[in-house]
Amino acid sequence: MNFGEITIGIRVRITKGFHTGRIGIVLVKGTQTVLLDIDEPLLINEPLEHLEPAPEDPLPPGWEEFEI
Asked: Is the Cβ–Cβ distance between 51 and 14 less than 8 Å?
């Protein structure tokens, strides 16, 4: 993705690296990287070229999906 497409709160999918395939929400946007919340106890920093737009959340408001 390029810098102009990234906005805070957008859902993105990680395409390269350790967290490949995970979907996260952009919390902070830098000039070359973004800080993502991927529903784990830590936040991750990913370069813009490792991201692509993700589909909208299919669950209705008030519901959340989690792994057991």
From this structure: yes
